[in-house]
Every structure is written in structure tokens, then in C-alpha cells.
Request: fold
Amino acid sequence: MEEVRVFPLSCVVQKYAWGKVGLDSEVAKLVVSGDPLAVIEEDKPYAELWMGAHPKGDAVIRDNRISQKTLGQWIADHPGSLGSKVKDTFQGQLPFLFKVLSVNIALSIQAHPNRELAARLHTQFPEHYPDSNHKPEMAIALTPFEGLCGFRPVEEIGGFLKKVPEFHALVGNEAAEELQSIVGDPLRVPGALKKCFTRMMNCEKKVFVNQLNILVKRVSEEAAAGKDTTGSNGELLLRLHSQFPGDIGCFSIYFLNMVKLEPGEAMFLGANEPHAYLFGDCIECMACSDNTVRAGLTPKYIDVNTLCEMLSYTPAPASSKIFPVSRDPCDPFLFMYDPPVQDFTVMKIQVPASVKQYTVSPIDSASILLVVQGEATGASTAGLSEMSIKSGSVLFISASESVSVHITSPAGMLLFRACCLL
Reply:
């Protein structure tokens, strides 16, 4: 009997506390759409859907012709399914983890280490850094999505130091003056920015809690009186403080860019880029790692010294954080998000209502396909059987396999495909 090389997956849901609750969550909607027997609890958070072979969330194979229970087990027995280059480069492992995230309250102020630092942290503190891999990641908005990403231009940070005395108090006169004196001298910017950020992050708890309380009281009173609080980034401050009262991360909004993505827009987070997702639903793809260095807006382990040392202190405007998407020259329905790392690429496939037949092309990489909108029947190259696919369906596609899709829904289809194009 010919080997089954394209098959559906049942994927792991992570119910982290920051997730959207019940059917407000895109994760929950996709789960229940893909599996009508799934039970969604209205008062529980549904934060992440993990599509891949990570040990903490290995997808279950939903094809009774296959003896292996999980995707990780199947790939271990069929490493050739990864594609020859991927198999050799990544030692027989699927190099990416594909996710859907539904964010209701802010994730921690964090960054991900490069390979060298990841290996060192894993050796020294394996309980906090569970593997030795780097973790570049990309977020593609499904709904309007907000996040903090990268350091603001120095002029913007300087503006907040002037307008927000409580922020100035944590940074201190010396570091603040140094930062404001080097505008226009790019070589000195990273050092001055690092000094300011490190001073704030290492501030004594009673000092920053006191300043935060003064700031929140002032901004709340200004907002209640109908005054404009944008000079203090007031709306975001009050929102984060309501989620994480007394947390130093509330002050990070004066250092980091606020990035707003519309559906289909993306941001790429390379090594050492400070960031925090704030609200919305997104597709996420990353190198297969769980390494995160945190320093605020979290009840989890925080590692302020490591974070302050590792960060990329390169200021840039928020607009520069939106990652460019390119249209495939041979396929008018295919859009590529191709980051500057070899671990993963994401494709968006948007098939309009007028098209009823589409082929998911063969590539020299294993891939995972998620259906976000629409219904169809799919058949793989081997043509062993047809599969019904719809919103919430997840397929594993072995290297060099194509899938013919016959679309049955009236409004077209939206699919996302993660792969590794070496």
C-alpha cells in the first residue's frame, strides 16, 4: 500500500491566562470549526494553537491508516518527508513551530536569544531556558493586532522624558541628559539608550511602584477631566496598569514602539528585539524553541540583567517594524512572508470566490497548512482519498507533495502555510 504523505492533524491548545476567553478567541473558533465535537468552555482562556512537533505540543495524526500517533513520531520514522535539505540542515527535525495566538491581556516584555546566548543560558539555567535554539518569530495579524516592538526613535523617548516626570525620575538626570545630548550622533545612541533602559529596569521596587502610582493617579485625573493624555501615552498606561498593577513593565511604553497591524500585515522579531504582544489575534511562526528572556508584565521568572545586556539598542520608527509581504509572480493568490532566517517562511493563500479549483504547490520542504476561512475537498498527489477541509482544518504536507483543492464555500478561502525554503 502506498504511503500516506498528506494527512490531517489535531493540534494542541494552550490555555494561558493571557488568552481571549471562550468564543471571543480566534483559537477557540478554529478549534470548534475544525472539530464539531470539541467543547469550548465559555469562561476559559484559549491563548495558543500549536501546529507542529514541539515536545510540549506534538500534534496528533487524524488518519487511521497511519500507525504513529503524533507528528513528531511520524517524522522520526519518515525523515525524508522533511525534504532533503531541511532534513540534513536541521538533523531530521521539523525546524519551525506554527501557531495561532488570541491575545486578551499583554504578554511579558521579552526578547529571544540568538543561538550563542541560547546555548549558554540553557547550560547555565536549564530550568528557565529549556533548549539551546534561537527563537526568531513572525506575527501576521488575523484581526487588528497591537504590540510593542523595538526601541522608539530617541526624539520620542526624549519627549516622554520631558513630559512624564515620573518616567524621568526612574531613568535619572544623568542618563536622561546623556540621551538627550546625543541626538544626531548615531554611534553614541546604543550606549546611552542601554544606560537609560538599564537604570529604569534596575530601579528599586518601592521607588518605581511609588512613581507608577503617582503617574497613574495623575493620568486618571486628567482623563476624567477630559484632558488629552497622549503626551503621557495615557490610554495604554492605564490599560497595562489595570492588567499588571505595580509592574515596572508599565514604563516600557515610553521606550518601545507601539505597532498596530491590520489583518495581513506582519512584524518580524529577530534575536534580541524587545517586544510584547498587547491585543488581537495572529498567525505566528517561529524556530522550534521555547526560550524567552522576560523582564516585566508577567508573573513568570524575570531575568532583568540578561535582558538588559542582550537587547538590540537600535532605535527606529514604528513604521519600520511592519514586515514587507511579497506577491508570488507565478501565483496571483499567493503572498510570501520570507524573514531573514532559514528556519521558516509563511505563505498566505487568498483564493477569491470566483475561483473553485486551486493547487497547493509542491515544494522541497515539509509544510503545515491551516484553513482560516472556507470549505473544500482536498486530494494529494498520491490521490489515495479525498479529505474534507474547512475553517480550523490543519494538514501536514510532506516535501514534494501537492494538494488539489476543490472549493465548495461561496466566499473563497483563506489559508496559511508554514514551510522551510532553504
